[in-house]
Amino acid sequence: MSIAVETDDELPVEGDYNFAYLDEQTKRMIRRAILKGIAIPGYQVPFAAREMPMPYGWGTGGVQVTAAILGKDDCLKMIDQGSDDTTNAVSLRSFFEKTAGIRTTYETSEATVIQTRHRIPEKPLTEDQVLVFQVPIPEPLRFLEPRETETRKMHALEDYGLMHVKLYEDIARNGHIATTYAYPVKVNDRYVMDPSPTPKFDNPKIDRMAALQLYGAGREKRIYAVPPYTEVKSLDFEDYPFEIQKFDKPCGLCGAENVYLDEVILDDRGGRMFVCSDSDHCEERRADGHLGPMAADPAAADIAGPTGKETAR
Amino acid sequence: MTSRDRNEPLLQVRNVTRYYGERIGCSNVSFDLWPGEVLAIVGESGSGKTTLLNCLSTRLAPTTGAIEYRMRDGAMRNLYQLGEAERRLLMRTDWGFVHQNAADGLRMNVSAGANVGERLMAVGERHYGNIRTSANDWLGRVEIAGDRIDDDPRSFSGGMRQRLQIARNLVTHPRLVFMDEPTGGLDVSVQARLLDLLRRLVADLGLSVVIVTHDLAVARLLSHRLMVMRQGDVIETGLTDQVLDDPREPYTQLLVSSILQV
To answer: Which DSSP helix (H) or strand (E) runs through B12?
Structure first.
């Protein structure tokens, strides 16, 4: 992690924008919120989120956190739904290329800061990396308790019975815990936290992760954090333990198993395949010679794009 | 129940006064509530009944006065000197609160089973099967058919909602239950069944109850002791039958004589 603290003799380079778009006072305010969040794992720290040059829902919270922690030597990776080349990822990556002029990458292992929407990379992260999440609704209790005053009090008093009411309803209605994303977790045996809308498949990765995790919610103006190697437990019942999604097929392109797969519709005659949601992971495997059952399919070739490494600029 | 439990009050109320600005909500109320006792507070609208009930149940801080409660460990504690976490724990384990409007006391968007199970989950029950068994058991005890366990309270009739609310409150075996007009807004036959049910549950579980009502029939059926309030003051107290059969205060006489005899 490189929270760059500018000293007097090393002023930020002023171009058309201040380094990483935000002014230094704002970054300082956000860093304070981040530090507080790290000190109290899972606690939602209010912060004065700024208007960003992109709509709410595009990751304004994540962008502000990233802007506050970026240093000139950082290498940034942007993920949207596991992929590096979808609209949200491309736009935010070019935003930071323009405003911070830093290196960006598609490769998980090369990045020092990874901003993500929905997914955690399949490749385990390391201590030198920071994972920034874009969070739409940071309050896990919100759907059952609409009053902010009340949810804050519930967090303060560790009054979390309501969270299990939601899981109870799932089992009563569906026979199993049907929550598949934004699956509530308890951080460090204290705060219940919404791990942003990541699939619950990624919940085990949050537990004792080596990398620092920062969560930013721009519209709701909250920042929270999970420091490295913090225990994060997914809530469940004794007789209905937490389970992650299982896929009966491997990735159609690279043959990877035990990864999170996306369904891709190939044509209008019912053709479809399941491919790695983490596009960098899939490309890396194919470059290493792993081939899935659909890799030779001409329809699939379109989706796979040129094989081999595709490192952005 | 040990003899000590029976010989010491559960709730001690001393000189409780609540002002709303210049106006008086209730003034200078003192009484003791004993284990297993049902106390009714009666009076017309605006007499301060609900203000007093809210003060007792820690929902509204009194302006002056002290309310002490005997905790499970036997110690008397001043309710307003408890921490908020302790007070909440008390509210969801040792106490119950039955609202006049069932929608206020229920979660209308989750199933009946979850409504009953919520308190259990709040105090740490984490076994779905056990929660469901308790919920089923309690729905049975308040005469709600077992096949309604997964239905929303929204699909329940007024009487059923009220019974569900009672089940939800009693599932943690509280010692003290507050009721605010529990039969208000129900038609008379449903009222009669609810009263029967309440009377049975109160007797079976040995509950202490503070019940606020303007319906003297409810007080007559349920309560052992009666407090009559008027304009914020308690004007008469005594055994229910004694007060209703031989009212002393002119106001109580008026109240009793206002009931239609059929």
So the answer is: strand B11-20
Catalytic residue among A59, A61, A255, A276: A276
pTM above 0.90, yes or no: no
Q: Characterize the bridge pairing of strands A103-104 and A75-80.
A: parallel
Tallying the residues shown for chain B, one arrives at 262
* Whole-Å CA distances, A54 to A59, A63, A64, A89: 8, 10, 11, 13
Taking the Cβ of residue B254 and every Cβ of chain A, the question of whether any pair is shorter than 8 Å is answered with: no
CB contact under 8 Å between A168 and B128, yes or no, is: yes
Residue type, B199: R
Question: In B106-184, which residue ranges form alpha helices assigned H by DSSP?
Answer: 112-122, 128-141, 158-170
pLDDT at A254 over 50: yes
At residue A13 the predicted structure's pLDDT band, cuts being 50, 70 and 90, is low
**Tens digit of pLDDT for each residue in B218-257?**
899 899 999 999 999 999 999 999 999 999 999 999 988 8
Tell me whether residues B117 and A237 touch, CB distance under 8 A: no
Question: CA A117, A177, A83 angle in degrees (round to 5)?
Answer: 20
Q: Which residues of chain A are within 8 Å of residue B122 when distances are taken between CB atoms?
A: 159-162
Which residues in chain A are closer than 8 Å to B88, comparing Cβ atoms?
A: 157, 159
Distance CA A270, CA A273 (A): 10
Q: In the annotation, is A75 catalytic? A: no
Chain A residues lying within 8 Å of B150, measured CB to CB: 172-173
Binary contact (B127, A161; C-beta < 8 A): no
Which residues are CB-contacts of A217 (< 8 A; sequence separation ≥ 6)? A49, A61, A135, A136, A137, A138, A223
What's the farthest any 2 CA atoms get from each other in chain B? 57
pLDDT at A168 over 50: yes
- Asked about A42 being catalytic, the answer comes back as yes
Tokens, residue A257: 């198993």
| Consecutive H or E run containing B76 | strand B76-78
Residue of B110, B136, B172 to mutate when probing chain A, most A C-beta within 10 A: B110
